[in-house]
Amino acid sequence: MPELPEVEALREFLDARLAGRVVARVLPLAISVLKTYDPPLTALEGGRTGPVGRYGKFLAVGVGELYLVTHLARAGWLRWREELPAQPPRPGKGPLALRLVLEDGAGFDLTEAGTRKSLAVYVVRDPHEVPGIARLGPDPLAEAFGRDDLAALLAGERRQIKGMLRDQGVLAGIGNAYSDEILHRAKVSPFKPAASFDEEGVTHLYEALRDTLGTAVERARGLAAGELKAEKKSGLRVHGRDGEPCPVCGDTIRSVSFADSSLQYCPTCQTGGKPLADRRLSRLLK
């Protein structure tokens, strides 16, 4: 799933290519993708594109006085083309969900792999009309987000730290992969109660959060959209690396399953050398 660093890189990528160009057509190819109907997609046609914004994992493309907002979900992606095919695509069972065509023939496709269709597109007058944006917590890379802000979020939180970091209503943009990376860098168990951090622990977690996300954004910056997935995978130290040696201590990275996903961690770095029980944890990570 694209998370804050990849979506930020996509924002910069699109911003550099879209600004000031005119939308010719917006073609929905999957019935499930469009989540709003007023204004209609056709209201974007003839509009001039403005700045592209990011809200957590959401992208918001300004078009005239409207916004085309996208959430790529787990298996969605954006594919830019300098010259799209002249023949409009036919709706079908393939991965193509939506196509935006500019007057000069360039544009992008939104695609989604697999059978579980969660990619979402909205046309709104204000990005905050999108329910998922309206409920977002603070952006963890915002200049205004400081160490004391994180301490306030942790205080009184009943959940374990892994689940809290992934909650978009608490912090915007962090998902399964980067929460694993943040906790590994901070040397914290994913099951540690969020409210149990002392002053030093809060500081270490804040530094790990900012360093992990900031480094990932810098690695992704300037890359073409098609290169971002591979770049993300190559930069991960523990997530998705079950059975490999930890790059810090050499211990074997372990995995714990929950719901339809999993987390990865290093026992030596994060849990005092003790493997975590591999049990279903969906109720703890909601």
Walk me through what this model shows.
By secondary structure, the chain is an alpha+beta fold. The strands form 3 sheets. A 4-stranded antiparallel sheet has the order 1-6-7-5, with no helix packed on it. Strands 2-3-4-8 form a 4-stranded antiparallel sheet, covered by helices on one side. Strands 9-10 form a two-stranded antiparallel ribbon. The protein is built from 8 helices and 10 strands. The model is unreliable at 281-286 (pLDDT under 50).
Tag the structure with descriptive keywords:
single chain, 286 residues, alpha+beta, four-stranded antiparallel beta sheet, 27% helix, 21% strand
| Total helical elements | 8
Distance between the termini: 17 Å
Radius of gyration: 20 Å
Helix and strand content put the structural class at alpha+beta
Stretches with pLDDT under 50, minimum 5 residues: 281-286
Give the fraction of residues assigned to helices: 25-40%
- How would a textbook summarize the main sheet? 4 strands, antiparallel
Outline the fold blueprint:
Layout: H1 4-18, E1 23-28, E2 49-55, E3 58-63, E4 66-71, E5 76-81, E6 96-102, E7 107-112, E8 120-124, H2 131-134, H3 147-154, H4 161-166, H5 176-186, H6 199-220, H7 228-235, E9 254-258, E10 261-265, H8 267-270
Antiparallel strand pairs: 1-6, 2-3, 3-4, 4-8, 5-7, 6-7, 9-10
Helix pairs in contact: 1-6, 3-6, 5-6
